[in-house]
Amino acid sequence: MLEKLKCIFKPKKIALKDGREVQPPTPVAPFVIIGLLLALIIAGNVTGFNFETIMKRGNQFFVILKDMFPPDFSYIKTVIPPLVETIKISVLGSLIGSFIAIPFAMLCSVNINKSKVVLNLVRVVMSITRTLPTLIIALISTYIFGLGTFAGTVAISIFTFGIVTKMLYEKIETVDMGPFEAMEAVGATRVKAFVGSIMPQIMPSYLSICLYSLEINVRAAAILGYVGAGGIGLILNEKIGWREYDKVGMILVMLFITVVIIENVSKYIRERLG
Predict the structure, then answer these.
(1) In this structure, which topology does domain 74-273 adopt according to CATH?
(2) DSSP letters along 57-125, please?
(3) Could you tell me where in the chain the CATH 1.10.3720.10 domains are found?
(4) H/E stretch holding 21
(5) Can you count the helices (H) and strands (E) in the chain?
(6) How high is the pLDDT of residue 8?
């Protein structure tokens, strides 16, 4: 079967000026496209995805979208307090998670941590942390700490911790180890050598990673209210349930403006950091 496909997509020979003929290699793109189409068909059958349903009911999305605009501007005063709450959750959670990530990034780095047992153990824990979705972490946090913003902050902190640790230890493994080894040679402890030689090298990347995490966390924190972890998601869930789409539109507009501002400020700072 594969040989027949190769014959179909086999390119024509190219005649050179000296009379020789060259056979170009069979292109890979057609096989990739066929593979993706087959995967799409199989995935559709396995998941029960139905294009017919999309065609029949897809227009309802635009019906709801039409009901959202124009938004109810009188609802702004109600939106602002939970929106500020969401920003607080995002900022505080990002700060806590990013700070805790530093020592764990050290433990995950093969050029800093020479103990394979500790290295592999910490990496497994980090993999589990990154596997858990933010909503699941928030749900567990509400069971432990109760409903409210504290549970949301814990969830965002854990999520940030997992992401920043992963990106940071990969950066640490690419740094110049010369200064670190020199400081250890003159009697500095491993921690002091890390702070004095590695941190200055990774600081711009570390701050950039933290800002990127903050951008993600603002959007993630917006839906934590669905599980009672505070923030704007609580009233968003309520208004969707009551089909008050003009108020939903106002919530989304305010959230969009907030995310755009934070992303642009973050982008500007990251560009300044180089």
Answers:
(1) MetI-like fold (1.10.3720)
(2) HTHHHHHHHHHHSS--GGGHHHHHHHHHHHHHHHHHHHHHHHHHHHHHHHHH-TTT---HHHHHHHHHH
(3) 74-273
(4) strand 21-22
(5) 13, 2
(6) 58
Q: What are phi and psi of 242, to 5 degrees?
A: -90, 5
> Which are the contacts of 191, defined by CB distance < 8 A and separation ≥ 6?
106
* pLDDT of res. 133: 87
Residues in the chain: 274
Average pLDDT over residues 131-138: 88
CA distance 176 to 178: 6
For 86, 137, 236, the CA distances from 228, given in Å and listed in that order, are 12, 12, 12
What is the average per-residue pLDDT within 140-159?
90
Containing H/E element for 141? helix 134-145
**3-class SS string, 155-205:** HHHHHHHHHHHHHHHHHHCCCCCHHHHHHHHCCCCHHHHHHHHHHHHHHHH
| pTM of the complete model | 0.78
φ, ψ dihedrals at 42, nearest 5°: -65, -45
3-state secondary structure of 22: strand
Instruction: Please tell me the distance from the alpha carbon of residue 10 to that of residue 30, in angstroms, as a whole number.
Output: 11
Gap between the Cα atoms of 104 and 156, Å rounded: 17
**In this predicted structure, what is the pLDDT of residue 274?**
63
Coil/strand/helix, residue 249:
helix
Question: What are 72-86's pLDDT values in tens digits?
Answer: 899 999 999 999 999
**Count of CB atoms situated within 10 Å of the CB of 130:** 14
